[in-house]
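User: Structure tokens for both sequences below?

Assistant:
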Amino acid sequence: MSKKNIMNHTQPDRRHLNYLQEKLDGKQILITGGTTGIGRTTALLLATNGARVVLFGRHEQELNDTLDDFKKAGLEDHVYGMLADSADKNDIKRVFKKIDKIFDTLDVLINNAGLAYDGIMKGGYDDWQYILDTNLLGYMACAHEAIQRMKEKGKGHIINIGSLSAESRGKDSSVYVATKAGIQGFTDSLRKEVNAMGIKVSLIEPGTVGTDMQPESPAKQRRMERKMTMLKAEDIANCILYILSQPERCDIVTVQLQQHLKED
């Protein structure tokens, strides 16, 4: 190979030097659990990069706060928010009916809605069922609806937000761990099921993230973030942006994010 050809071969493709904004511009995205924590932060970041976002959550005040954040950022035209519970099959159907009205297609589903819970010795059957319906069955139901829309155009991306709890399987968190281990297995199998349809499936498993799911006070969470013993929601949002910004030929299969230091 000549020196000239070697130099040409090793030059970066300049089309991708600033591809983040170009890649997401006009993308139509649904985020479950999009009114707090990781979901809200991700929605704002993706909208800033040109995406159109539908998000939902369970509580009106959190939804209003999120929509206010979009308005302050001048992004109100990039978001549609609604109240819905991912544990309710009728709510999920209602969300996707709205998707069909305001989007001409669905490019990305980010399954993020989730609840913290302890071990099996806490609560009873109805409590466990609600956690399972929210943390696992809701992911499955939303994925099913999303795939129906994505397969028509032979393209799409599903990102499931899991947890490193699926790996660490800590004491006194057996119910929560069961749901996160379930997400891990579901994602791995789903990828094999839908890749031939042109649909990508990615799993993100964060460690401890400073959100309202944590038992620590907001002040303590900020201290832990400064000490690098807790991740920020922004860390997960940036990871999602990175995954969605990859060329079509690239699949980011699994990302695990761990806080840099362990709490003493």
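Moving on to the next sequence.
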Amino acid sequence: MTRRLPAAERRSQLIGAAISVFAEQGYGATTMEAIADHAGVTKPVLYQHFDSKHDLFLTLMTDICGRITEHVVADVVAATSPYERVQFGVRSIFSYMLERTDEFHLVFNASSRSDPEFIAVIERFELLMAQAIADLTDIPRLSPADRLLMARGIVAMVEAIARFWLADPGESKVDTVTDYTTDLIWLGLRGRPPART
């Protein structure tokens, strides 16, 4: 028999179970029954909190993207220079990925882009990150639109590095990967070196 929990505690339990199952199986293969089984509840209990699998997944993505944003902002606030803002932001993404791997997998995999509403959540998150990066760009005569375009590319690059590194971390440590990624971004943000005469 399912033990009765306060609504907020039960919802938190269900969210934790859903994150684990979605991260392991992907959106398409996951069923509400599998999530309920993982949480140790019946399907009707799960449906008391979430109307559908789509509603649950959308809630998770929105919450996780919000937590990542808060995590990055909290880390970047401590920076004392533009370079450190890039460095701390990159390390924040990588550390979040290592500490909450299931959440990272849930947001940044192919099944998360299988629905227009899911895509919209990721797009909002990526745009927010890109706008912050664009403000650090110091390339003369580059328009605001071009700065944002370059920044969107940087966001995609950091996500790709994180995914590949998570899949095969090897001997690479978070500080090493952070430093390499930061230097690559920083050189790009500064623009092409002046030609030598």
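User: Anything stand out in the second?

Assistant: Residues 52-190 form a domain with the Tetracycline Repressor; domain 2 fold (CATH 1.10.357.10).
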